[in-house]
Amino acid sequence: MASPTLATVATQFLQRPGLAKGTLKAYQSTLTPLLSGYGSWPINLLERSEVVEYLQSLSHLAYTTRRKHQATVQALFNFAVEKGYLKANPIARLKQPKPDPQQGEHTSDDTIRYLNESQLKCLYRAVDLDTRMKAIISLLHRSGARISEVLQLNLDDVDFEEQRFQVLGKGNKQRWCFFSQDTAKALSEYIHDGRYPRSTALFTAQQPISLETSRISYRRIHQCWERLIVPYPDLKGTRLHDLRHTFATERVGLMGIEELRALMGHESIQTTLRYQKVTSRRAESVAKQALNTLL
């Protein structure tokens, strides 16, 4: 009997009874990049080296997101073993990724990376002629949502009247995110001039040959980001995730820490308090610079 394709097994994996709606949506979003590259492959032809190479290609994502991807792929292959499609999980005992200090992935307060005013001006100049990226950048910066949450949005999820949208965050918890008038304008321009129709997704892409429209992938957005920031030395090494940190550091002191925690979707208040410490250190640095100028 011919081995089923990875897409076939993934469909069976997602159709298991008892999966919560939130869990199903998270699984679908996580597996989409894998299926776009290997969905048509017979599952028994996928070897450890190919799967590891795919997981390593996700280096543009935060390490916590990469861990989620790997755990989901592990679960998919374990399901394939249970169904008898595979004799063994090809990535059995593969270690989970750890924070990479060279990429700014730390747990200490000193390593929270955010964009300063000058960098933000550069960034908005960089995306000014790309309506899709301009809308994504503005939405990330003004709402504090994660890139994974934004890319899961459908067009109908955005409430322009209230300037808000609801996301499914970590732990399958829903929360409201809000955006400003300039973001509403950027979104409207993208929807009118840059969005490919025939898809329910908010942010779409079109295949160059088949012209098929689909939800845009993490990888495609990362490639666009890297291309756009190349001409700007001040943006070297910046990441899409830094916009979430920027949102938080801009709002510390302007609202209560509990309100900021709710907007960010943090489970622990200690996670939110990191931004308060970073902002305090930034204020101290500015004060010292001012004093040195006066001396």
Topology:
Layout: H1 6-14, H2 21-38, H3 48-56, H4 63-82, H5 117-126, H6 131-143, H7 147-151, E1 158-159, E2 164-168, E3 174-178, H8 181-193, E4 204-206, E5 213-215, H9 218-229, H10 242-251, H11 257-264, H12 269-294
Antiparallel strand pairs: 1-2, 2-3, 4-5
What is the number of E strands?
5
How many separate helices? 12
Structural class: mainly alpha
Average pLDDT across residues? Answer: 86
The radius of gyration over CA amounts to 21 Å
Name of the CATH superfamily of the largest domain: Intergrase catalytic core
- Named at the architecture level, the CATH assignment of the largest domain is Orthogonal Bundle
**Helix-strand pattern, N to C?**
HHHHHHHEEEHEEHHHH
Adjacency order of strands in the biggest sheet: 1-2-3
Query: What is the end-to-end distance?
Result: 82 Å
CATH C-level class of the largest domain:
Mainly Alpha
Characterize the main sheet. Answer: 3 strands, antiparallel
Strand content: 5-15%
Residue windows where pLDDT falls under 50 for at least 5 positions: none
Amount of helix: 40-55%
**Number of structurally distinct domains:** 2
Which fold does the CATH topology of the largest domain refer to?
hpI Integrase, Chain A
Shape: globular
